[in-house]
Amino acid sequence: MRTAAVAGIGQTRFAKNMGRTELDLAVEAIGAACSDAGVEPRTVDGFVSFHVEQVSEVDLVTTLGIDELRYMARTPSGGGGAASILGLAAMAVEHGTAEQVIVFRARNRSKAASYGSDPNQGGRPWAKSGSRLRDFRQWHHPFGVAAPAHEMALIGRRHMGVYGTRAEHFGMQAVAQRFHASRNPDAIMRDPITLDDWYAARPIAEPIRLVDCSLENDGAVALLVTTVERARDLQAGAIPVLGHVQLGAPIHTELSDFFATTAAYGEHDSGAVVAGRRLFGRAGITPADVDVAMVVEPFSLTVPLALEQYGFCGMGEGGPFIESGATRWPDGGLPVNTHGGSNGEAFVHGVNHLPEAVRQLRGTAVNQVEGAEVAFACGAITDPSGAVLLGVDR
Question: Whose CA is closest to 350, among 239, 247, 215, 243?
């Protein structure tokens, strides 16, 4: 078994309605990641992406002039898969299946960026469901649960009912991330907000307000993964992958088991509770060793849920943890989403959280956590998900 490492990171500009194809965006981000590492794109021999990714491997091979592709993989589940793509790439490198693997996500996410009738062809997928439903949505849409915000509102309400979490706790995380974004030149939302602004924001689905929501934008992100030894010889150096885990246990996903299980709240040993134990056990460290965390949050309320389930605080303590200021840079004990996250920097299904973890460990982040040596990143825990731990090269 070899140790995998991130050797390069790249991204496009993030904006609304950029008027560019997803292939164009993907190629720019991949080129930037290769340039960061100091390698030629044609030497890439693996790709990992989402199952809803519209940019095909064949198009990338042709456009980038790749010599030979040895590894191709895709992970399911939108915001849940952001860390999983990095884990799959690391696994390929660790086992010698490939030498230089690119993980990427390209997205035309703006409401007006739709370029076809398929739900995955830009725009809002749930807006293209049509009038006749034959899948799980037939049990949700007639009752008003048609979009992710509706699903998450129910999950948030239950957390509030079980643990006494307040809606303001979610708002405090939204405020913290918008403060982080205000200092990030790559962020779309550069104006900080206050808790009063959160109160005044338009309700989307109680307790979710507009500023709790991920942005709708275009953009692409890519990372280059190779061996630690190889990365050390490249110009950006190595950020080793300390551990990775995937999570497909019974959890809240599209409300299919809303009343059948409480695993999403850690009341049983399943879901992210078990995944976290596996992750930290494999890495030989504990949550207390983590210096900075990237939590993919299509809505800000997923942050306290993830922190609880992965062991950064006790069950039901996520809201007070945020209220204490622990997730806010620079004074918090565990700054979360220091680039601004999905409601501040951009929404690329959370993949833009991964370069920020790398920047923190390189010491080049805008909101740099002093002495950061271990970074945690997880996908949205309300979907089939995953998590990774990254560290500095020793």
Answer: 215
